[in-house]
Amino acid sequence: MPPPAKIPRQETGASGGKAKITGAMLQTWKTLGQAGIKAAGGLNGVARRDNVPAGALRHYLRADGRLTQLGEDRLNPGRKARITDAMLQTWTGLGQAGIKAAGGLDGVARRDNVPATALRHYLRADGHLTQIGEDRLNPGGKAKITDAMLQTWTTLGHEGIEAAGGLDAVARRDNVPVAALRKYLRADGRLTQLGEDRLNPGRKAKITDAMLRTWKTLGQAGIEAAGGLDGVARQDNVPVAALKNYLRADGRLTQIGEDRLNPGRKVEITDAMLQTWKALGQAGIEAAGGLDGVARRDKVPATALRNYLRTNGRLTQRGEDRLNASGKAKITDAMLRTWKALGQAGIEAAGGLDGVARRDKIPVMALKHYLRADGSLTQFGEDRLTPGRKAKITDAMLRTWKALGRAGIKAAGGLEGVAKRANVPVAALKNYLRADGNLTQLGENRLLRKAGAQPM
């Protein structure tokens, strides 16, 4: 048989040099069959050949050549129905035997034309609804988790939770969503650190540089002896979520922690650095101790370095754009019209937004102001192509927008939705209105001048 079609490499949205799985890949994999997969060296061989993570590939493709239900759902999203409360009621009546007769959960999903992954959020193979499903059918009856509940749950202990029938049963008994309960309570009867922090918010200390230096000396053994990161957080009376921004379980500070202890030694990233990093290659980066090691060696913030360099040794598109700024073309209205005609399939065929930017010799960051990965222009792009039809922003509009609040803006489809509805350029609207529903200072000043007051 002829060799299977080679999938074009695509970097957008991928990490470590791996391509993003596209609809075109799924179509190609679907034609391989079991023999084609074997000839490619199994699923791992297909993943290597098409430059995608093997773990991600297995979400979509089986070794026998069939797509998983997730793969089928992705190829046919338009035909999928939305899960309704009526479906949940029907599924509760199936029982284990009914689910088996339908071909398992995948069979039920196919029969009712819903995504199998979504169905599994609500239904178990034994015929019972999950707690999420139960909660959905009875949303009005759910109570809000209170500090008093947390206090009660701390007294249960492991045996009390088991006697109640586990965390799901405690949630049912106390009429709270199980997903919310699990944020606060563990199966062994202890509160999570989030629960502990909630019960004692006032006593939490602020993380200081002195703490970072102490934590740096602990090492993995010291952290384990303290009871892990949660134990260190309890011992030093700081929120565990905040501590994890600075300290790893192996005893090393994160790069954020390192940067905080040594802010003065950090230098600005230069074009010369980009050239040097580009020459390192994957082996050179690994030898330096990864991207964090390169950042330490060159005394730059690791988060900033990652904007320019990948772990496989290649510069990001942003890095490439910076080194070749003079070779970049200006975005024209003609380009916008061409991009608008591409559609999602055309963008994927070009290698994603990065590929389109490379092909048309423009900075990818600039392109993303105008074009989305699904092939539609952003509101900026639409405004630029049709500027004449846009209305002028008036004081009456500002007052209307001020009354919307965050919820009203969300309901309108965000700031872009408000701009479309009022027929004004979104870039102009953002000068006056924030996504949280507040006017910007420019907007407030404009209304104050109209009222005769002194602007701030």
Written overview of the protein:
It contains 29 helices and no strands. The chain has helices at residues 23-39, 42-50, 54-60, 69-75, 85-92, 95-101, 104-112, 116-122, 131-137, 147-164, 167-174, 178-181, 193-199, 209-225, 228-236, 240-243, 255-261, 271-287, 290-297, 302-305, 317-323, 333-349, 352-359, 364-370, 379-385, 395-411, 414-422, 426-429, 441-451. Helix 10 packs across helix 11. The chain has 456 residues and is mainly α. The chain has six domains: 80-137, no CATH class; 140-201, no CATH class; 204-263, no CATH class; 266-325, no CATH class; 328-375; 388-451, no CATH class. The model is unreliable at 1-15 (pLDDT under 50). 59% of the residues lie in helices and 0% in strands.
Contiguous helical run count: 29
Decide which structural class fits the backbone: mainly alpha
- Count of separate structural domains: 6
What's the SSE pattern?
HHHHHHHHHHHHHHHHHHHHHHHHHHHHH
Q: Report the mean per-residue pLDDT as an integer.
A: 81
Shape: globular
How many strands in all?
0
Gyration radius (Cα, Å) is 28 Å
Return residue spans where pLDDT drops below 50 for at least 5 consecutive residues: 1-15
The major sheet is characterized as: none
Strand content: under 5%
Distance from first to last alpha carbon: 75 Å
Helix content: 55-70%
Notable characteristics:
456 residues; mainly alpha; disordered N terminus
Summarize the structure.
The chain has 29 helices and no strands. It is mostly helical.
